[in-house]
Amino acid sequence: MAHLGDIYSRDPKQDKALSSNFGVDYVISYKVPAKEKAEAEAAFVQLIQALADTGFATEVRHGDNDSLLIFTKIASEKLLINQIYRYRLQDWLYGIRISAPDKDQAKHLQEEPVTEAERLRLTYLLITKPKNEGGAGITAKQGTWKYVETIFPLHDHTFNKNWIKEWSTKYSLDDNDLIQIRDRFGEKVAFYFAFLQSYSTFLVFPAAFGFAAWLLLGQFSWFYAIVNSLWTVAFFEYWKVKEVDLAIQWGVRGASKIQLPRPQFQYEREAQDPVTGELVKVYSPWKRLQRQLLQVPFALACVAVLGSLICSCFAIEIFISEIYNGPFKQYLTFIPTVILTALIPTLSTFLTGFAEKLTVLENYETQDSHQAAFVQKIFILNFITSYLGIFLTAFVYVPFARVLVPYLSVFQTTAQRFTASGKPLPTKQFEVDANRLTNQVIYFTVTAQIVNLVLEVVVPFVKRKVFKTVKEVQTEMSSKKPVTRYQDSEDEKEFLARVRTEASLDEYDVTIDYREMVVQFGYLSLFSVVWPLTGCSFLVNNWIEARSDALKIAIGNRRPIPWRADSIGPWLSSLAFLSWLGSITSSALVYLFHNSKRGPDGSPSSVRGWVLLLTIIFAEHLYLVVQILVRYMVAKLDRPGLQKERAERFAMRKNLLEESLGQDLTEQASGLGVTGGEKITREALEEEQRRASIHGQSHEEAFWQRQRGAAETIQIGRLLISEVGQVASNQTTIQAKQSMKA
Amino acid sequence: MAHLGDIYSRDPKQDKALSSNFGVDYVISYKVPAKEKAEAEAAFVQLIQALADTGFATEVRHGDNDSLLIFTKIASEKLLINQIYRYRLQDWLYGIRISAPDKDQAKHLQEEPVTEAERLRLTYLLITKPKNEGGAGITAKQGTWKYVETIFPLHDHTFNKNWIKEWSTKYSLDDNDLIQIRDRFGEKVAFYFAFLQSYSTFLVFPAAFGFAAWLLLGQFSWFYAIVNSLWTVAFFEYWKVKEVDLAIQWGVRGASKIQLPRPQFQYEREAQDPVTGELVKVYSPWKRLQRQLLQVPFALACVAVLGSLICSCFAIEIFISEIYNGPFKQYLTFIPTVILTALIPTLSTFLTGFAEKLTVLENYETQDSHQAAFVQKIFILNFITSYLGIFLTAFVYVPFARVLVPYLSVFQTTAQRFTASGKPLPTKQFEVDANRLTNQVIYFTVTAQIVNLVLEVVVPFVKRKVFKTVKEVQTEMSSKKPVTRYQDSEDEKEFLARVRTEASLDEYDVTIDYREMVVQFGYLSLFSVVWPLTGCSFLVNNWIEARSDALKIAIGNRRPIPWRADSIGPWLSSLAFLSWLGSITSSALVYLFHNSKRGPDGSPSSVRGWVLLLTIIFAEHLYLVVQILVRYMVAKLDRPGLQKERAERFAMRKNLLEESLGQDLTEQASGLGVTGGEKITREALEEEQRRASIHGQSHEEAFWQRQRGAAETIQIGRLLISEVGQVASNQTTIQAKQSMKA
Prior knowledge:
Chains A, B: One of its GO terms (cellular component) is membrane. Helix content of chain A is 65%, strand content 5%. Chain A is mainly alpha-helical.
């Protein structure tokens, strides 16, 4: 069995296997548990029928020992084109496209060729959407389809190989690279890389400035804090614009309006929509709100569980490293780190699972709202695990250590119980470790990042190796090779081996990558004033990160389904929150630690509550004002995306207007020109009036008949103007008389 | 000359004059200065020609002594229909309308009849827009048209009469009333009344609750402050939604996207738009930004001028009322009030004029941006004049009086200079007036409101009366009646008299009315915790205000040009600002004054800076969190307007989809059904493969040929499934063996 880790070897036979996907759109991995063979068979028949009815060609091969692989492709080109055209039309109706697709389908497709991502996305929708909407209605792991393990597209290894190769030689991604990613993996993944790219580019500034600040200003510089805060605002506002820009360039602006229904959504009742008459599935929003309120206890529980764990480890650590002075000190110091390293991921995983369950319970109609709600929860989780420790050091340990440390004697008492002698443990005089905060920040921004990177790359690799070995051993140990009446044909052998490997890989989840970046941004925003080199560390880290993420998608995971997206979604508000919070923490840190006139116990002396609060208020509101100003300025800039949109809209408008109205807009009411019009005298007018009264003209008609044509109006107007002079001169005389009298 | 103030008398002759507008669309009041008769005449000829060329019928009559009245109407019905249709099409193109107007113009107009407001608006545009866009290009008081005083539509007095009559008998406006206002005066005015109505309705709550709080909780209750703050959030969020809702109902959502160019805009150069190829007028945004920065010194100057005036009056007042104890005290007390009453409006008017000039200097392309920038400036002005006094009392006078009062002796010294005796003025011991704050708030929320109302109604009335009398006297004193060769015809006499009166009225400016309401909202949000009855006072005031505003539009002013609007525009952000600031001032006031444990000098004792700041921070952030929550909840609600929009969009989408795609979407790739497909055996398959290799089929083709049709896939799948069992049982055996060994 070929291992994907080795896929870019020089083996020509493998190259062949990788060079073609045999025209397969999707592979369905179908589990057949030995004990439920009959049901699995029945469901299998249904599955193939459903696929065939929808218009898929199917092939089946054996997969792992207890699974089948079903290969599907859209059988009729016409069906595919129809789908694409229909979705593009829908895009236009929802305002995502500006110009309607050409009525001539063939011409249209020539003008706007189908990308691989689009084709795969629509095919996937065709497989999964309900039957009454024209799909096959196959939802993995649900109901009838509980044996369907996954539905996944195959990697385009030729592309991946080039991508990785090219990328390791250049520093940054340009627009073309992003478009390539988008064409292959869809906008959702492309948005992640675009974000990573923009963020990394922006990081150059805090890296350079941070380095300078580290040399010249030292720690806790208010100047650094202000510049850093400005930078977060600038980056956030830039990205908000860039995001819209990219969405327009990629033709997906507003794509989130077309919501993907969540198949797991459970409705209370079906009701006719009062608006559209459509039959819609309804779930009471109030019930959902009630369930959403469970987030509050959830958040509190997270704070309690993770917080108490972090607090106790923190306390133990302080006790051991700064009070305890007995034997084994050098080993005991590691206890809290070990505890944390062991428990935090476990608890995190557990709580994430719980968050997932809560989100499912909230029962959202659409994928997007589900995802957003989930992201919100894991953001809380990550906030606690990532930042709580530093918060404790900065705002509890250093200022209040003298007050709190005596309580740590509880450890002493506890420890004494376990020592045979019962005599007091050797301690030393407590001293606040002034470098603790700095060390902690360095740990989180350097060490933890490296550890994380290693885990991300190495662990899945090791996992796969082990897994593979186990399987091989199992197979070897079986007394005879499994009976396979249908051996892989020679032509397909490598291809099938490769597909089997891909089927065994994990699903790619972009959320994890976003989370990592957002948490990183948080360190920069919240705490980099403690250690200005933070930016440098992140810059290096992200260069590797981008490449390791690419590798992860290309080799480490199954090819993701190329979903669309028009922004980085819920993470945007997380960034906003962290940027805002940064203004508060930075100002507080600067005020607390800037003076360096630390008391004998290391705690900052002469801290005044009201000055601290005033500093925070001032910094926060300065931040908000600057944000408004930056927004205003950014709005003034003309972005290429918006320009493109305007151009398209203008063209469409012009076409349509010309089409429906032609050039007859300037049709001037004829006969109203200035020329013509008979000479008028008072007699003529009076005559007219007399005539009018005889003919019983209405007042209105008479009014408009008095001056026929513009020429007459002009004539009479002239007369009236000449009169004005007379009246005016009369008045002038009067005024002159009056002034003479006075 | 009939006076509009008397128009609703029972004089039948007048009734006739009021019942018809003679089909006039617009009246142009044309000034003819006696000294510039020749130029005026030439320009007049041009004017009539321009109007005629565009398609207007014209009639001219004499106006006031030195002016002409030019009556215009669109001459050809077809031109009007064309205009309307074109603008509706434009609306559709910009996404303001959801469904395109019917291609058959006649049918379309029957389906959606033209409202008076629409007709008048488009006619006005036709008169004013540049010639190259098909208009007459007449811009009042500018360039060639400097003699054009105003261009105004005539009041529909039949409607106005009914409107006022109906309104004096009912309490609140319903949607129909608003639609009527909109149909006559346009959306901009209708939005003001809608806002006033919503605000007044919402006021019922703070009025009732405020009354209860006044009885039960007293002043400076934290409970009142919280409820009041919640109310401001609720109202603001409600209005934001309501506004969108109304815009949809009135079919103007997004109307602000079609910007009305400002004729006064001066461009630096004309350039081809890189996007549209249109020739656009360009003014450097950076130059504008530079000019916008002048706002900062302007704001500072306002603060300095108005602030120092208010401060000095404040100081004088305190000196006289609370320190000075000599003769004439009862009269001297009024000095500061007199100074303020005399100077504030004067200064305000001056500064408003200055703000207007600044805004003109900023040189905006569009009416909307000009208006928004202007509103921003007058908001600053009004903020200072309205609230600064109370701020001073609450946050300077009461807490710091003891510190500051000694400085007031400067007045004493000054005053001594002017007294002959030179002996010290009689003073009394200074005491902080604990009721000062309350009295001041009552003054601003009751007295000032009444005074304002009176001024608004009475002053223009008196002004007109005086003006009229002066004119009559002038006319009488002239030795002979002005020579008018064209006396008004008997039929038109009353009509023309009425038009002449309307021409002499002021322009209606909705900004002033908005300003009043926003300032009022500010008192409620910022200071009502001082005096909870504030809400009651405003409720009563607004009932009268709504009616007096209606009277103002109907009788007191010229009929406004019925502009469109899709929101209350820049005032929205003023409301948001006041609501937010309210959370801060209320919490600060409650903390400072709640305890009532005032020291002997009346200043709140035991005020701690950090507690005050913490209170403010807490209140502000609570406010922000609540705002986010309320927004979230409001977003969940389904509003009639949004529902209507969805319904229309759905219908349009459905129609278009059916039109272009028909019912052939479900065309299933035929021949892929489950039926059919030959019986397959292994031999047949191998045979097939052999054949394939002979015919040189590609691997891909061969792959998809192996199972032809779904039936074959099912058959083979079944075989594979049966195998799974065997393999699994093999493995089971192995595992069993292993476990036996262990």
